[in-house]
Write a structure and sequence with these properties.
binds flavin-adenine dinucleotide; single chain; 18 strands; 372 residues; FAD/NAD(P)-binding domain; alpha/beta; D-Amino Acid Oxidase, Chain A, domain 2; 9 helices
Length: 372
């Protein structure tokens, strides 16, 4: 039997590509060398963030469209599986504590109305004097006010991956503990680490940060890297959905299951893949500055992961240069969970250009940009 598509990597990108391929009626296999969502997609944080509404460009539009349609995508997934992914369009708060930040924020308020089509979508980006959510972002941490947007959302990353796995496992062949070694395009043979092989018409590489090594060999230069991030999970029950708090690379995300995740992901240099207690304590103390009521919340778990980041920052989506049947979808900024469905849809468009071309793939996402 020959698969139409073999997808490599069972993270949020690979799962989303597999789902989109299934939606096209294709015969799909998903290879994961460990277990589904055991890489960067095993995370805790789950902030689904918009880009700021200024200096507008194709990729901001792409991300806006992805976020707007996300509610429907989640609803479909939850209906199909009967599983909640802890999604809520809870919004986002950003503390303002310097005059330049305040001025910058105020200048974006006007632009957001146009860019986010606020009249039509209802999503707003405003500066308010104090938190509308009791002590969720205390005035001491935001002396000049707060950016409050109603577009950002949150979901539980582990539940999203689990939902996708449940949806897919009876419809495609998911092969865990199966390492991909390579694809001979001439014979259509996919070589596996266990010595076996599969037959396929196409391969899609969504192998996270480890997938950059073969891509960099093809390009003759580094295409991407792994960026470490760390997080912790607190027990903290909120009586209603609370907005994501974001400041200077740190996210504080209240989840539906009575937890709060705190995380950051921008360590370009790392030696250990494990959480570092000093970093965890720094993040926790910052979060407590924002929300003093987190002070005595018990720590449930700590987690660190390595996310894929393209050297040229933007995601990489399309046919690998010099290849005829080997595709790639990887490197989703810090916000893969907000855009992976749209990235996967774009990949299908690129693969089957004779079908409807409804989504505009930004030039900076295309292999020519990254490999050029
Ligand atoms: C601390 C932290 C916090 C974050 N917070 C957020 C957030 O709030 N919101 C958000 O949207 N994003 C967040 N991210 C980023 C997000 O988690 C990642 O961008 C995303 O999970 C990447 O998904 P992926 O599928 O590209 O890669 P991965 O999830 O890493 O998946 C790649 C998979 O490929 C497999 N693989 C590799 N090589 C092979 C091979 N040869 N054969 C078979 N399988 C292979 C790996 O085992 C792995 O499971 C965060 C990341 C970190 C580290």
């Amino acid at each position: 039997m020959t698969y139409d598509i073999v997808v490599v990597g069972g993270g949020i990108f690979g799962l989303s590509v597999a789902k989109a391929a299934l939606g096209k009626g294709l015969k799909v296999a998903l290879l994961e060398k460990n277990t589904i969502a055991s890489g960067a997609s095993a995370g805790l944080v789950g902030a689904l963030m918009p880009h700021v509404p200024s200096k507008w460009n194709d990729k901001k539009q792409f991300q806006l469209d992805a976020l707007i349609e996300l509610s429907d995508i989640v609803e479909e997934l939850e209906e199909a599986t009967g599983l909640s992914v802890g999604y809520s369009r809870a919004g986002r708060l950003i503390p303002l504590y310097t005059e330049p930040k305040l001025e910058h924020a105020l200048s974006r308020v006007e632009e957001s109305k146009q860019r986010w089509r606020s009249d039509e979508t209802g999503f707003t980006f405003n500066v308010v004097k104090e938190t509308p959510f009791n002590d969720w972002l205390t005035p001491e941490a935001a002396p000049l006010g707060i950016i409050w947007d109603t577009l950002a959302a949150r979901a539980n990353p582990r539940l999203v991956s689990a939902g996708l796995k449940t949806l897919l496992e009876t419809r495609i062949d998911i092969m865990e503990h199966t390492e991909y070694l390579g694809f001979d395009e001439t014979t259509g043979t996919v070589s596996l680490g266990n010595g076996e092989s599969l037959s396929a018409d196409r391969v899609v590489l969504s192998a996270g940060y480890e997938g950059f090594e073969p891509l960099s060999k093809i390009a003759g230069k580094p295409i991407g890297m792994g960026v470490k991030g760390q997080s912790l999970l607190l027990e903290y029950k909120a009586d209603k959905p609370l907005p994501v708090i974001y400041d200077n690379g740190i996210y504080v995300v209240s989840h539906a299951n009575g937890t709060v995740a705190i995380g950051s992901t921008s360590e370009q240099e790392w030696t250990s893949k494990e959480p570092v207690e000093a970093d965890i304590q720094t993040m926790l103390s910052k979060a407590v500055d924002f929300c003093p009521s987190l002070k005595d919340a018990p720590i449930l778990t700590r987690w660190a992961g390595i996310r894929p980041k393209c050297k040229k920052r933007d995601p990489l989506v399309g046919l690998i240069p010099g290849k005829d049947k080997t595709w790639v979808a990887t490197g989703g900024f810090k916000i893969s969970y907000a855009i992976s469905h749209r990235i996967a849809a774009c990949l299908m468009q690129e693969m089957f250009p004779e079908q409807d071309q409804t989504i505009h793939l930004p030039e900076s996402f295309k292999p020519a940009f990254h490999f050029g």
